[in-house]
Structures are given as structure tokens and as C-alpha cells.
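User: I need a structural model of Bacillithiol system protein YtxJ from Chryseobacterium sediminis for a docking pre-check later this week. Nothing fancy, just the predicted C-alpha cells so I can convert them on my end. Input:
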Amino acid sequence: MSFFDKIFGGKNETQDQKTFWKKIESEEDLTKAIEASFQDRIAIFKHSTSCFISRTVLKNFEKEVENSEQPVNVYYLDLLAHRPVSNKIAADFEIRHESPQLIVIENGKPVNNASHQDISLSQIVS
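Assistant: Understood. Predicted C-alpha cells for Bacillithiol system protein YtxJ:
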């Protein structure tokens, strides 16, 4: 991995992916995530792998999750690789698309969302 890939989020970003993430890569995955929200509050992190800001926010959020004793159900969406799923989330929940973005869902409905520097674990556990 080159120096620029490390800074700007290169091709090997998925190798660094934390184990707590559940991936959303299809509409079926999204449906399963929404169904899971009827048991526990979930959050979907929409990430642009080509954006330095998104990568920075993602890494900060991952540190928060790793350092927390609070269990959370977090889903990861690479919005560049799965743009139709990202668009469906925006349309179905009537939430303007942003990147990075965290959408918190409970009982099938969005209860909180944040973007950029406002993203934190407190949106999920509060």
C-alpha cells in the first residue's frame, strides 16, 4: 500500500475492517438489518472509500466502538460500491444522503442520524 493509499483510503481498506461491522452489500442485507432493528437498535454507517474525511470519521468512530463496553449493532455500507442500496436508504427513510453518515434505526424507523464530525457512538447508545 502506498503512502497516498494509507492517507486517502486505498484499495486495501477492507483488509483493515473491524470485526464488529456487519456489511450491507445488497437490498437483501438492508432488509435483514432493518428486521434486526425490531430486536435491538442498529446503526448504518455510510462510508465513501474515496473520501479522506469519511475515512477519518470512520476510524474515529471505530475507536469509540472498540473502547466502549456497550454492545452495539453496527452495519457498514461502502456507498461507492453499493450506490443503489445507499439511494434506497435515503429514499425509504427520507433522509438526505451525506457521506460519511450514521443512521440509527429502531423498530424499522430512523430515530437519529448524523454526518461528518457529528458522528459518534452517543447517537446509538443514548
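Before docking, keep this in mind: Confidence is low (pLDDT under 50) at residues 6-15.
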